[in-house]
Amino acid sequence: MKACEICSKKCMGFDGYDGSCCTVEDRDFIIGPHDDPYLFLERLKNKYDQEFFFEDIFYTYEEGKEIFPDKPIWQSPQSYPALKVNLEHPRKPCIFYNTTLKVCTVHEIRPNTCRTFKCDYLRDNE
After folding, report:
1. SS3 string of the chain?
2. Which of 76, 56, 53 is nearest to 64 (CA)?
């Protein structure tokens, strides 16, 4: 089974669960740090033929630490830049994660952190 199939159907080994690494949920988790934010912005620009700005896509430490003051990882400068999340959704997914389709909408151009992250379950079953 391919990684994208595992992640969308049996994330972390749970049947019917999806995209845990793309959501904050109620854990002490952050979608970062990202070492290639400007390269990712360039790929977004090329894909969508429009300009994207850092502050629209990423949290800085100054901004992020205020969002989840009760989550220690969000209080660490080393966790940034981090991808923004949909704060209105109960799972707090990455702004690029489609919770209905259970897919990353920028999968083919996603940042390095997203490309290289593998949970234990994925690493063992890919």
Report:
1. CCHHHHHHHCHHHCCCCCCHHHECCCCCCCCCCCCCHHHHHHHHHHHHCCCCCHHHHEECHHHHHHHCCCCHHHHCHHHCCEECECCCCCCCEECCEECCCCEECCHHHCCHHHHHCCCHHHHHHC
2. 76
Given pLDDT bands bounded at 50, 70 and 90, which one contains residue 3?
A: low
Parse the chain into domains and list their residue ranges.
Answer: 3-125
pLDDT digits (tens, 9 = 90+) for 60-85: 999 999 999 999 999 999 999 999 99
Radius of gyration of the chain (CA): 14
Rounded to an integer, what distance in angstroms lies between the CA atom of residue 42 and that of residue 37?
9
| pLDDT in the model for residue 10 | 72
- Is residue 78 within 8 Å of residue 10, measured between CB atoms? no
